[in-house]
Amino acid sequence: MRPSLLLTSPCAHSVCYHGRVRSRSLEEAYPGIRFRPGSRGFMAQLSGAPAECEHLENDAKWMAALAPDTLYLQGKPAARNSGPATRPEASLCLACLTQVIRPALAGFAGRTIVFEPAVGITQYLFVAQKDLEAAGLTPEFAAAIEARLRELGKDPCEHERSCGRRATWLWLPHEQVRELDETALVRAAPGRKFCAAHGAAQLCLSFGMLEDANLLYMNLPYGEAGAYVWV
Q1: pTM higher than the cut 0.90
Q2: How many alpha carbons lie under 13 Å from residue 88 in its C-beta half-sphere?
Q3: Domain range holding 44?
Q4: How many domains does the chain have?
Q5: Which pLDDT score, from 0 to 100, does residue 86 have?
Q6: Would you list the DSSP string of 103-124?
Q7: 3-state class of 33 per DSSP?
Q8: Dihedral sign, Cα of residue 108, residue 134, residue 124, residue 60
Q9: Does 147 map to a domain?
């Protein structure tokens, strides 16, 4: 069983931006990523389909739709970023996704509970502590997350000899918490404690261990604390 998440996009395959202005260009939002020209044309924009990195043209075995600054609350998109502009959604291969998210995750200063991505998931999303219940997570699950968040920031990263930073990430591997409605395990699982930089590396490594993936939605962290959960 999985906690009830009211995060379904109005569009079948991607985050929908109908009625919204994309105030940042792809080049601004994704420096260094090259996009397939055909995915940026008028027809693609008319259909609401996101631009695709050039590697997906020949190999779509591993792909993720990244909407960095958008969270779905009861099926409606809500902007969640600290800047004046929202970054557009993009479909990325594993290499391009890693190139984009690793520095963003490493630079996130907040506390984070991260559930290891499971095989076959379709969404992997960050929900800030203040949005847990509004996003459709059960009160029991939200309470368990909040309890674990309070533990972070006190202990050193598990790589303390080479790192020296405090642990702001709690990594919960799949073998410790197999289903997200196992709130007793969410509260008790020892997990692994990382600083943001080592946590980002661990998440990217975990993504790389998935032989294939079709993530219809992923966002980036925002706020002061929260959790990465999967659907």
Answers
A1: no
A2: 24
A3: 26-230
A4: 1
A5: 85
A6: HHHHT--SEEEEEPPPTT-SEE
A7: coil
A8: negative
A9: yes
